[in-house]
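=== Structural record ===
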Amino acid sequence: MTEMVDWLNACALTLISLFNSVMDIFGLGSMDYTKDMTRTLQSALVPWGEWLARHTPPDALIAVPDIGAIGYVSGRRVLDTAGLITPQMVPLLERVPATGEDPRDVAVAELAFASFARPGWLLERGTVGEELLGRSRYAAALVPVGSTEAPTLGIARPGRTVYTLYRIRWE
């Protein structure tokens, strides 16, 4: 029995090693991803969380695509535009026509969450700063506060990503 357990352990280690090697070949190694996400958190999301903690009231609601660092660092309530912790977003995302554009980006540009909540702040994730001002029909309601740059979001969104914070005027 011991020989069989040893053989299974050796097989498992071999498969894990092979998997990690293949991931490294394609640039998807776990260490690279971890380093990329750490840089993204430190350069783009944590600074906005700190800013929001200093400049918004404790009961502020912030619409964000990446909820973890913003919610944790700011201590504010978050509306998850991806729908992971805000289930009201899911049917809105499902209704977005298939155009090749990310449904989350379309829903944010349309301020689709206004059907159930009115956050005072919106953190947009795009390829350039203040992207929503050029593609949202509600641009007049968006007051840009500033932008931060992230080197990459890993395999989900490789390449440069810019986070822009807006104040939303619901007048």
